[in-house]
Amino acid sequence: MLIGRKVLVKGEVDSTNDIAKALAIEGEPEGTVVSASEQTGGKGRTGRHWESPEGGLYLSIILRPDLPAQDLTLLTVLSCLPVAQAIEEVCKVVPRIKWPNDVRVDGKKVAGILTEVCYRGGEPRFMVLGIGIDLNTDLSALNVPEAGSLKDVCERDVDPEHFLNVLLFKLDEFYEKFKKGDRNLDLYTRYSESLGQDIEVRLGDQKVKGRGMHLDPDGALVFRSEDGMIYRATSVHDVVPLDRGQVRFDSK
Ligand code: BT5
Predict the structure, then answer these.
(1) Among residues 29, 96, 124, 223, which one has the fewest Cβ atoms lying within 10 Å of its Cβ?
(2) 140 lies in which domain range?
């Protein structure tokens, strides 16, 4: 097992992504994980904030894939998959992936992913895959109405150590397959609430309604608008699914 061979467990930190990046620059090998119980400066995409009170799971993984830049953006988009799988295994619900990087249950965001790639001479040197999960988060501690917590989904506290072990196993399995060229797209489609669904995409100031068609090789979402135009949304765009259905399993 590569991912999780070494796990550095921290208390309160600024951002696990920043710690992992600093370690990677010093030569820390691929697969090392930094996890923290709280973050004071948790980061989302495009300068947004990830609220990170006690009760959540915050982790960052150092990866050194020998892959072209296009594959790294696809890897970022597809890395929601092992997160969704871990939630399904532990909570017995089928979460949905809202392209590009949200994992949701009952229309509530329970996890988000932020990857940061460090380049040298135009070539990717390493990437840090940062995952935030509202595990046992008290939602009243969050200023985010659209957030959900897995303890509410499971109707019990989730054992963080068990969840982390399941997640690292799923991440490792996914990453090994990805490096060998298996893109897991069928499985991704199963969890996706954007592919084959009616969606609304914000393209700059414009909102376009349409239907998600497929992912391009770089992870961009290709969709057909209601007036028949084909668009390609890259990960700076947000997608609002119009169909909020989700599937629930009975507990085994
Ligand atoms: C994300 O950004 O969803 C990526 C979040 C990645 C966080 C992890 S934690 C470990 C690692 N270290 C870091 O510093 N970051 C990573 P984005 O798609 O931009 O979503 C941000 C938006 O999600 C915010 O603007 C809020 O609306 C919402 N949000 C903030 N905190 C949340 C939370 N705890 N739960 C659910 N939604 C939240």
Answers:
(1) 29
(2) 7-191
